Amino acid sequence: MTTTEGTEALRTRVATRLADARARSVALTDAVDDDDLVRQHSRLMSPLVWDLAHIGNQEELWLVRDVGGREPVRCDIDNLYDAFQHPRADRPALPLLDPTEARHYVREVRDKVLDVLDRSPLEGRRLEADGFAFGMIVQHEQQHDETMLATHQLRSGPPVLTAEPPPPGLAPAAAEVFVPAGSFTMGTSLDPWALDNERPAHEVHVDAFHLDTTPVTNAAYAAFVDGGGYDDPRWWSDTGWAYRQKANLTAPRFWLRDGAGWLRDRFGVIEPIPPDEPVVHVCFHEALAYATWAGRRLPTEPEWEKAARYDPATGRSRRFPWGDEDPGPEHANLGQRHLSPAPVGAYPAGVSPSGVHQLIGDVWEWLDTGFTGYPGFEAFPYREYSEVFFGGDYKMLRGGSFGTDPAASRSTFRNWDHPIRRQIFAGFRCARDADPGERA
Ligand SMILES: [Fe+2]
């Protein structure tokens, strides 16, 4: 994406991204019957039909009413689909639109939005400049699509989703890379569709550190599990151990004991666990316990972003580990093209200048940093997107997963969640401090 793109090219790209997001929402909701759509598969998640109408409602609020200045389509349902009014656990009890009504509603909104898009100058006031509001809504729909994919992982019953298996990988020779001390530009002031919490660009000094070349694999994590890692409080933080006891954690979520080994449940398919894929469905506490057991630690958010953006040859921060161009299938496992992470080393074209693999795609990576605004943060276009979460019980997640669309992926994109969450497509990689002689 560049700001020099012509207005008509931008309009076409917005329309394509809107259509891509809608095709995915439709596929995720058409995959199951109406009973399944209205059912709550987990108290952690909304019924799929809530997500669908909520996607339409946000689109109506921002694009039909605000950008378009049009009459409301259904202002009577705003409250039902306001995520701040109703926790997920309570949503099935609401008088929600039924699946037929929800499908009709999102189509009606979208028809109006395409008309608004045709007439918007895509410049002028900040909400419309560079198509920001449209980009925000595309990202919102894609983020809910990833949430709906996580709901699919939680639902019981026969498999309904299919996709090609990921490409094979060849584990890189080096287990870790060294990142020298120095400052880099974190965040962005230029990416037109970057959200408020990614802004503004600012300089951050990062001490020298070592970072794993790849995310921690299932095989590596199984050694922790099988070595008694879940039974030894030495490896866990106090909070993490208390949660491990309370929730009776014994392995990553969706791992199933099979004699001396393990199987996994992946979207309803019970299968052997591929040893060379990044581990997924672990919470922050499990990631931290593994890192401590391995004599390492989790990276911080500035460390992760420096590894994912900083180009030592030019001193510049790029949009992605591989450069500035948008992600293609050769760069990263994004966009639900596959229904699992890819083996480590599967994306040599996506490697960072310092040799770090798979920073983008495959699994969100837990980081040992809480959620705050960058220096100079300014809420836009509403406080509830980011600011109300600052300082809460959250840990940062970076890089996106196999379920994250490229439209909601870049090396500045910030995600956050409670440190106990395991239903999201999250894994991690480890880091360690530089040795004293390396801290130049
Ligand atoms: Fe939402």
TrEMBL record:
Pathway, according to UniProt? Amino-acid biosynthesis; ergothioneine biosynthesis
Instruction: Tell me the ranges covered by the Sulfatase-modifying factor enzyme-like domain, including all copies.
Output: 174-432
* Keyword hit for Metal-binding: yes
In which domain of life is the source organism classified? Bacteria
Q: Please name the source species.
A: Actinophytocola xinjiangensis
Q: Gene3D superfamilies, per this entry?
A: dinb family like domain, paralog of FGE (formylglycine-generating enzyme)
Query: Keywords on this record?
Result: Iron, Metal-binding, Monooxygenase, Oxidoreductase
User: Which segments constitute the DinB-like domain?
Assistant: 18-148
Q: Where is this region: Disordered?
A: 308-339
Instruction: Please report the name of this protein according to its UniProt entry.
Output: Hercynine oxygenase
By its UniProt entry, which InterPro entries does this protein fall under?
CTDL_fold, DinB-like, DinB/YfiT-like, EgtB, EgtB_Actinobacteria, Sulfatase_Mod_Factor_Kinase, SUMF_dom, SUMF_sf
Source organism phylogeny: Bacteria, Bacillati, Actinomycetota, Actinomycetes, Pseudonocardiales
Coiled coil: which residue ranges? Answer: none
User: So what family is this one in?
Assistant: Belongs to the EgtB family.
Residues that, per the record, bind Fe cation: 54, 140, 144
Q: What does this protein do?
A: Catalyzes the oxidative sulfurization of hercynine (N-alpha,N-alpha,N-alpha-trimethyl-L-histidine) into hercynyl-gamma-L-glutamyl-L-cysteine sulfoxide, a step in the biosynthesis pathway of ergothioneine.
Q: According to the UniProt entry, what is the EC number of this protein?
A: 1.14.99.50
In alphabetical order, the GO MF annotations are: gamma-glutamyl hercynylcysteine sulfoxide synthase activity; iron ion binding
Name the top EC class.
Answer: oxidoreductase
Q: Which reaction does it catalyse?
A: gamma-L-glutamyl-L-cysteine + hercynine + O2 = gamma-L-glutamyl-hercynylcysteine S-oxide + H2O
Identify the cofactor(s): Fe(2+)
